[in-house]
Design brief:
single chain; 715 residues; 59% helix; 6-stranded mixed sheet
Length: 715
Amino acid sequence: MTTEKKVGSGFRLDIQGLRAVAVLAVVADHLFGWPKGGFVGVDVFFVISGYLITSLLLRELQREQTISMSGFVRKRIRRILPASAVTLLVTVTASYFVLGKARFDSILQDGIFASLLSANWRFAAVGTDYFAQGIPVSPLQHFWSLAVEEQFYLVWPLLLIAVCALAAARRRRRGRETNWTLWVFVTMCVVIAVSLAWALVETSSTPTFAYFSTLSRAWELAVGAALAGLLAWRPFRLGVVVSSILVWIGTIGLAASFVIVPASPGFPAPWALLPVLSSMILILGGAGASRLATLHLTNPPMRYIGNISYSLYLWHFPVLILGVALLDAYLGVDHPLTMPLILVGGFVFAILSYHLVEEPVRQSKWLLPNPTRARGTSLRLMVAATAACAALVATSVVAGGRTDSSDVVTAAQEITAESLTEVSVDEAKAALAAEIKASLTATAWPDDLTPTVADGNGVENPPGNTGLCGSPNPPSAAECTLGDPNAPKKAFLVGDSIAQAYAPALAAIFGSGDWSLRTLSMYSCPYIDMPVGSSARVTETCAKRRAQQDEAIKAEQPDLVIISNTYLREYNPATGLAVTRDQWNGAFASTLKLIAENSKKVVVIPQPPHDKEINECFSPLTGPDACVSNITKLEWIQMAQAQSAATTELDGYFIDNQSWFCSDAGLCPPFVGNILVKRDLTHPTQKYVEKLAPVIRHEFVKAGVLSDADPAPVE
């Protein structure tokens, strides 16, 4: 992401403009979701960086016959540390006040890893999915690319020195000149081949890890480095016409990348090839092209944006994440001015950062070699490198004393026979509807919100072995059965984590008396007749679980199969593209057919309607209206219609659970009474599922599975 202003024999205006194209694409994608492939601007930065940094190193080698690692490190610190440290400190501190404790602790950890140039491994390790819309996004997530660059530059200068030393040794042995620049080019070609091959493997097996991995991204920087080595070895005289044609070929290729490259697990390999090769062609042609051919890159506005591109990249994402929370509080949710104001704010912060931090430090003598203070250089380097991390830790200590008034979480209620039958169904449904309506008009979050937003992901205590049974290696069938395994009536629970989320109520309804409930569902593995998954490994694991569910249903012929899945949140690993609605609905209908042929009854419980991610929309500055979902904006209605039709055709029962979570108008509050409804985008909290137990039981009465005359099961 950084800017080195000299390359070759002079300043390349076209490369400065290419930086502007890259950063504008990233900003537009993040703010407006268009162009859909704008995120590949990061890959453009990688190529530019590899080319320019390698050109600088080769010039130093030509001039000094060696590379000063201490000098190189000083330059990198001067270039990246001041602006990034300020961004980190301001973002982490502001997150505490704007986003609240629910997200601060995680953001603080992100900041510490970012200050240590290891943010990419942090996000890879926690399983962050860059393309997932339902996972809370860190305002520091974009620091992953800076970490990849700097990790590459910890190794590349050393490798370059080693290559040149080998070339020199060969020259001494043979007594003739050895072209070490050719060796540099060949070395980079090897790095490209190895890294790209690894990227193809890792993208297929673990795409989330591949996206953030330095090993899977090194080839992109190496392409730029190889180009620098190639031109140092054999400068091409392509002529104005050929160079101009190359510029436009690269421009068209880059524009196509922004439009057609999908946000899918097929990235960074092979999809990153298009923007990377297009950038390489642009850089190659830009040196000799006509002024007219490069005017779209060299005009004054593009040059200036290229100058501030590093600061703009650093600041645009924190301004987006924090700005949405602030503007939602003062302008209202989804105000039409929100994104334009955030765009302006991102540029304001970038301009201030460039002129007040970047340029003053670049023009100063900080960390420049000085014989009179040589002994203090190492200490200054250490202090500079750890300053941001120390400040972030201090922020943590200061923030640690703050507690929210709603931090204490009460224990989950125990569902008993009385709680299921103590009020009539009509009374329960009317009370629920009234509470939903009241929650939609609330202007403040309940002081006794249970669980709190901060603790919503940590208070789940599913009944029996439900949690363990949802793992890839579940215990025995008996251990995954609630109630008497020999009970006369058997119910099976299949699906993914949505099925697991409904387990507390289903266990109370079917886990005793004449019924037993066997958990066959598995987290992250929808029960659907097609290969889906975020990676090849996940797809294979889920296929095995689906086969186990198929076999169990065929063998046991249960009285009831309850199926519940997420919807349209999976990828087809064969194509690397998101599963379409028609594909999903067709595969789901096929699954229902198998269940209907091997059980007495199938009941479908869809995922809750979803729109707002509670961990993203919640802020101490905003009221609960910022987290009200609107069902009319979603595909949930089309999903419900398709699954209802498929279920009814097979004499099954589809539960329309909109009224469990939303008003008749399709508005869904973040809490009902004092209970948090969902712990993330799609999963209801255990506390809320327990609240719904009487209403859920009535749906099985309507389905003909239970009778109101039957006594409620006792735990």
